[in-house]
Amino acid sequence: MNLAVFGANGPTGRHVVEQALAAGHRVTAVTRRPDQYPLSSPHLTLAVADVTDPAGVDRVLHGLGTGPRAVISTYGVPYSRHPITVYSEGAAIITRAMASHGIQRLVCVTSTTVAAEQVPGETLMWRKVVIPLLRRVLGRTLYDDMARMEDIVTSSDLDWLIVRPAGLFDADSPSNDYQVSAQRSPGRRTSRPDLAQVLLNEATQPQHSRCAIEVLTRAIPPRQAAAFLKEAFGGRR
């Protein structure tokens, strides 16, 4: 299958590309810095583009050719006090380009923090203190734009899927101990390789369509505080 991966040079995107190549897919890795890309393969094409550049995105998707194709979006930015618009701008440009080139399957990443529904059985501290701190203070501009991104994707005519991880942490490989659900579920951490595996599986062998799903790692995560600070203030998706 021909796959375009936006955000391919981010921590999650690299796992997606690596797993896709190992599975025998042809991958177009979209990055602004191809000279820094750590992976190589006869089945890998590096494409220079920014998700906010309509001409660049159109060029990437035109290059996928015909036949079975899908787009995986993993791009992201850290928390910022300044207005964030890259999620919604990129989603609008990608969905328009996909429609133009007849590409139907889009699998994209947001966050469990965007979900409006409460998690059953969640602690009062987490519901009343931690989530409001993330959603309305530390990550307000980021999560507001993720919500706009979801609105753009869900209003499209594409065969879309929104994948919501919890707090992301690094690992070397998939844990094979994670939960995928279209319902809110208890869980606060998601490993990037687990997230990448779900993104790839859903892009190539869809199990869900036109809905939002959560991916929650059940294996023992790293220390919460250190992982949160790394992800929130220095990490990318």
Automatic annotation (TrEMBL):
Residues 7-206 form the NAD(P)-binding domain. One of its GO terms (molecular function) is riboflavin reductase (NADPH) activity. It holds the Pfam family NAD_binding_10. It comes from the Bacteria. InterPro entries: NAD(P)-bd_dom (IPR016040), NAD(P)-bd_dom_sf (IPR036291), Polyketide_Oxido-like (IPR051606). This is NADH-flavin reductase. It comes from Catenuloplanes atrovinosus.
